[in-house]
Write a structure and sequence with these properties.
mainly alpha; 49% helix; 0% strand
């Protein structure tokens, strides 16, 4: 019985306490501002790609903004633009945030992960691109019929040393006739060969 009385008294006294956080038009608390997570460029510097304090587009004047000043030097942000009570109050977040704001907040949280994604992905894509290029090329002819080899043995043994371009072209023609696509490949036709 005393618990019920205590709760009833607390409920009536808490109703008189104003709500914490900023209210929207409908009396709901929106946890983020329209420009979240950006803040004043005067305080934190410019936002965006290649808009920092340094640029690599200019060799004679690479410093284009204020030097980076860490918080332990300047003592933190003296004029904060984020109200922690409003920001961490999540009671109306599903009613006040749009789907685009949810996506924006999700991807802004992933921004520090960019190097950890790109570091393994870059060599993987480079190796994959080499593999794709190699698969598009015609395989080399490692073995040759003995009779064909001895018909023109001097060319096969010493041709690469005298004129390696002509030797490579000779082998291209040989493969074209061997695999039956001679006359179909326009790169093997023409006066420049």
């Amino acid at each position: 019985m005393t618990g019920m009385l205590r709760r009833a008294a607390a409920r009536s006294s808490l109703a008189a306490i104003p709500r914490r956080g900023a209210m929207t038009e409908g009396g709901m608390i929106k946890p983020i501002a329209p420009n979240f997570p950006k803040t004043s460029e005067k305080t934190m510097g410019p936002h965006g790609w290649c808009r920092g304090s340094y640029t690599f587009w200019s060799l004679h004047s690479p410093i284009v903004g204020p030097l980076y000043r860490p918080p332990w030097v300047v003592g933190g942000i003296h004029n904060p633009t984020l109200d922690p009570i409003k920001h961490f109050n999540t009671q109306h977040r599903f009613h006040t945030l749009t789907a685009w704001e949810w996506v924006k907040c999700f991807f802004w949280a992933l921004m520090p992960a960019r190097p950890f994604v790109l570091m393994p992905l870059t060599p993987f894509l480079l190796i994959l691109s080499v593999g794709c290029l190699e698969q598009r090329r015609e395989p080399m002819e490692i073995f040759m019929d003995r009779e064909k080899y001895w018909e023109n043995v001097d060319d096969y043994m010493y041709g690469v040393y005298f004129d390696h371009h002509h030797f490579s072209h000779q082998l291209c023609h040989r493969r074209a006739h061997k695999w039956g696509y001679a006359g179909q490949d326009i790169t093997l036709e023409g006066g420049h060969h």
